Structure to design on (252 residues):
């Protein structure tokens, strides 16, 4: 799955634990979490950012500046989209030319560094976009966030990172359960933030928590695979990984 064309390079990448595509997305999301406030709106903002960045860096295309259309694409009110775009323009992150949104140099530079830290394969481009990811990982992160928001509108990016880490454990490392300590180590989260988020995921029936039979002081966490909304997450991940496998085969 990681056998990509030679033109795609991994520049000074320091991926955590694995170069598996799902691991890279998990790391990318955890790095984003470190830069964002974990408020109730942070996951909505992250999803909107993923939508724009996937256009810029997954596809190397400008994004529509039509706020109503953009709102429909990310299932957000126009006012929410307008507020984010205005802030991004003021911070010199994007520019709006006619009916299109384009990335500014600082945004390209920062995301190149960010993706390389996450272990993302990229190809340099002589264009306003600067580089292109080898496969649509940013778009997948946004779609996964959308699935979580669909079931739990108050979810945060912390919740998404925990779920991705558990999916990574299950799919990449064949581990069905993790402890809070495992998650804290993987995601770089403090105990209080992690505990609150885990409680929210258990309450929304996305996680199952049980005492370790060998040490009742330890809680084992696993995904609720019996729930339809968790199955939807699994189907999305399978589709994503299957597309990568086909893409890699086409590249030889």
């Amino acid at each position: 799955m990681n056998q990509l064309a030679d033109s795609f390079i991994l520049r000074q990448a320091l991926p955590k634990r694995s170069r598996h595509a799902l691991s890279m997305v998990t790391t990318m999301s955890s790095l984003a979490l470190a830069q964002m406030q974990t408020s109730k709106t942070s996951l909505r903002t992250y999803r909107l950012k993923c939508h724009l960045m996937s256009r810029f860096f997954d596809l190397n295309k400008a994004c529509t500046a039509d706020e109503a259309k953009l709102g429909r694409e990310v299932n957000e009110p126009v006012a929410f989209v307008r507020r984010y775009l205005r802030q991004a323009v003021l911070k010199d992150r994007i520019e709006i030319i006619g009916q299109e949104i384009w990335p500014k140099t600082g945004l390209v530079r920062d995301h190149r560094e960010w993706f390389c830290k996450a272990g993302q394969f990229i190809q340099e481009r002589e264009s306003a976009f600067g580089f292109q990811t080898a496969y649509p990982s940013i778009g997948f992160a946004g779609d996964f966030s959308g699935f979580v928001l669909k079931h739990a509108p108050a979810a945060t990016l912390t919740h998404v990172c925990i779920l991705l880490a558990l999916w990574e454990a299950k799919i990449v490392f064949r581990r069905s359960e993790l402890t809070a300590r495992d998650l804290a180590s993987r995601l770089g989260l403090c105990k209080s933030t992690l505990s609150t988020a885990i409680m929210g995921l258990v309450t929304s029936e996305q996680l199952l928590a049980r005492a370790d039979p060998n040490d009742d002081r330890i809680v084992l966490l696993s995904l609720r695979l019996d729930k339809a909304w968790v199955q939807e997450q699994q189907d999305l991940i399978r589709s994503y990984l299957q597309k990568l496998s086909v893409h890699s085969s086409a590249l030889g």
Q: What stands out?
A: The first strand starts at residue 63 and ends at 64. The beta strands are 63-64, 94-97, 100-103, 122-124, 131-133, 178-179, 207-212, 215-223.
